[in-house]
Design brief:
By secondary structure, this protein is mainly α. It has five helices and no strands. Helix 1 runs antiparallel to helix 2, helix 2 runs antiparallel to helix 3 and helix 4 crosses helix 5. The longest helix has 34 residues.
Length: 141
Amino acid sequence: MTFTEAVELVGKTMDAAGVAAIVVGALVAALFALDPRRRSGPEGDVYTAFRRRLGRAILLGLELLVAADIIRTVAISPSYNSVGLLALVVLIRTFLSWSLELEISGRWPWQKGAGSRAERARHDGGDRARADVHESERTTP
């Protein structure tokens, strides 16, 4: 196997991982939304939690897809044309990522927001484990 073939295989694997992250994340978000134990609050909470989980899955998938594009473009065909096309794709995906981050957290990615534990739990759809993660992020140096 040549270097080019190996890099192409890595790129395709990263593409597959990105698509899988989006699909699996969408399925998990749907399963959580359909779980009757999660329907204790108002209907809007289920919808908000579903959107946040789905948004996180899409963000992860976009990051993996961008990584795959960078690997293939830089390692296989580093021409001005391919790098320019990569820059355009990364710009579009970055805009999508920022838009999703704004939808999920209510803040731009570069804005720090401590927020209370209760606010984070509410933003995460009442996901207590997620609120605990946020709490530990705030308390670690």
